[in-house]
């Protein structure tokens, strides 16, 4: 009996020692991977201080954010059918100026935009754009909960401004319309230092709405030279991937590293619901999944994988466009499925990179088109090449080659070859089923008769 007990005890000790050794080995390997990931970030010169990513506090007299927040709040307090007036006006602005617009949409937008509370709200935005900086009232150190408080509101407001600019141009006041465009562009620029990908996505949407307004105005009320110079300067200031790369670094520090550095007692409540089976999962299942996620070797490995992915993400954003499905693109997503937090915390990099390239394409096409119009006004004809404009940065983000340009006598065509890299002669996408198309700006816009003749 004693021998049997001794063998059992010896076997038990061997198992415990073996498990402890395996745990210590797994832990040391995960710690080494984490140390290597941190060292690689430092070697790349990536920011490592979370506090440095937070916009500095501003005196009220210098901060534009309260004006923007007040404008949104004022319109949200007013009700509209099934929506707030902010949403309703934004929807009307999108619908009222389409070729297929319903007359009642246009009439209602014209009526509402003249209401005193709408006029005051838009005046607040204009006032905000005169101030030197912008810092929103948000908890920048709140980890995963530190979202921009008015991301959707900013998108609605920029669309309303675009609709107002069109009404001003059609009403015979082109100078006021171009002033509203400048307000749009300055408003978009106010989000430049916002340290989240959501904020930068919002900023890109605002840039796209603004350039759409500009291209429409060019068809109906082209800018004079002074207006062109101001708009060109603002567009140039909105170009560049820097703010988006900074947002990737900021998310790593303010969200990812915030979560990975939480005490165990706070970690359960902070882990995203999807990592624990979803918000509706039974409590016992959530607790079980949390134990798996928080198992120390796995947790450190997850953190190392997250840092590696965020490092590669910043590099991919800063570099040339890498099409989806290629080796360089897939390398960023080559992370084992067991690293649940890495998959939950990582931004949708492929989407962000593509949307950034589309936004910068449209911005640069707009810069080129505006300059072409000024060139023709001064010299009586369009140039033979874009080089004659004397502008820098007219590069197709998808290829890192110059934008394509064709002089069409009374008009012009400038275009990007889009993400497939193939030159389709400036062909525009006409339906969601089209697979071969470019991103063009043809001026003037073809009429229905032109399309039929073509």
Description:
Helices cover 61% and strands 5% of the residues. It is built from 17 helices and 7 strands. Strands 5-6-7 form a 3-stranded antiparallel β-sheet, with helices on one face. Strand 5 and strand 6 form a beta hairpin. The protein is elongated and about 105 Å long. It starts with a helix and ends with a helix. The C terminus is likely disordered.
Chain-wise SSE layout:
Layout: H1 2-43, H2 65-76, E1 79-80, E2 83-84, H3 85-96, H4 103-113, H5 116-129, H6 151-170, H7 174-189, H8 197-220, H9 225-238, H10 242-260, H11 264-270, H12 283-294, H13 296-318, H14 327-332, H15 340-345, H16 349-379, E3 395-396, E4 401-402, E5 404-407, E6 412-416, E7 439-443, H17 448-453
Strand count: 7
What structural class do you assign from the helix and strand content? mainly alpha
Describe the main β-sheet briefly. Answer: 3 strands, antiparallel
Helical percentage: 55-70%
Number of helices: 17
How far apart the termini lie comes to 99 Å
Rg over CA atoms, rounded to whole Å, is 27 Å
Strand order within the widest beta sheet:
5-6-7
What's the shape? elongated
Q: What low-confidence regions span 5 or more consecutive residues with pLDDT below 50? A: 448-454
């Amino acid at each position: 009996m004693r021998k049997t007990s001794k063998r059992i005890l010896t076997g038990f000790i061997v198992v415990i020692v073996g498990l402890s050794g395996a745990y210590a080995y797994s832990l040391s390997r995960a710690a080494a991977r984490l140390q290597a990931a941190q060292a690689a970030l430092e070697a790349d010169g990536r920011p490592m201080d979370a506090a440095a990513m937070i916009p500095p506090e501003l005196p009220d007299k210098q901060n534009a954010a309260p004006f923007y927040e007040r404008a949104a709040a004022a319109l949200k307090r007013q009700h509209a059918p099934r929506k707030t007036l902010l949403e309703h006006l934004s929807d009307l602005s999108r619908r009222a100026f389409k070729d297929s617009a319903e007359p009642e949409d246009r009439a209602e937008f014209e009526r509402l935009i003249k209401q005193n509370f709408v006029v005051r709200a838009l005046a607040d935005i204009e006032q905000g754009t005169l101030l030197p900086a912008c810092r929103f009232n948000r908890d920048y150190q709140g980890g995963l909960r530190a979202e921009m408080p008015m991301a959707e509101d900013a998108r609605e407001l920029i669309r309303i401004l675009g609709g107002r600019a069109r009404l001003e141009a059609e009403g015979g006041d082109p100078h006021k319309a171009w002033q509203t465009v400048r307000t749009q562009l300055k408003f978009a620029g106010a989000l430049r230092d916002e340290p989240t990908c959501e904020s930068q996505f919002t900023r890109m949407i605002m840039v796209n709405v603004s350039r759409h307004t500009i291209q429409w105005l060019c068809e109906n009320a082209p800018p004079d030279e002074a207006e062109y110079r101001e708009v060109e300067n603002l567009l140039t200031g909105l170009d560049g991937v820097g703010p988006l790369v900074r947002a990737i670094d900021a998310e790593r520090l303010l969200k990812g590293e915030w979560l990975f550095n939480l005490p165990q007692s706070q970690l359960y409540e902070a882990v995203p619901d999807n990592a624990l089976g979803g918000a509706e999962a039974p409590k016992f299942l959530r607790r079980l999944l949390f134990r798996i996620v928080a198992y120390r070797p796995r947790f450190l490995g997850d953190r190392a994988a997250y840092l590696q992915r965020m490092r590669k993400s910043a590099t991919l954003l800063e570099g040339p466009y890498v099409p989806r499905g290629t080796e360089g693109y897939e390398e960023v997503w080559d992370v084992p499925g067991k690293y649940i937090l890495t998959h939950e915390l990582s931004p949708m990099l492929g989407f962000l990179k593509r949307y950034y390239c589309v936004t910068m394409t449209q911005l640069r096409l707009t810069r080129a088109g505006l300059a072409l119009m000024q060139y023709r006004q001064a010299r009586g004809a369009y140039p033979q090449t874009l080089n004659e404009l004397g502008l820098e940065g007219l590069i197709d983000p998808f290829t890192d080659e110059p934008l394509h340009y064709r002089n069409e006598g009374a008009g012009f065509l400038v275009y990007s070859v889009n993400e497939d890299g193939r030159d389709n002669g400036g062909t525009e996408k006409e339906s969601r089923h089209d697979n071969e198309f470019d991103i063009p700006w043809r001026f003037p816009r073809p009429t229905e008769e032109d399309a039929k003749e073509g």
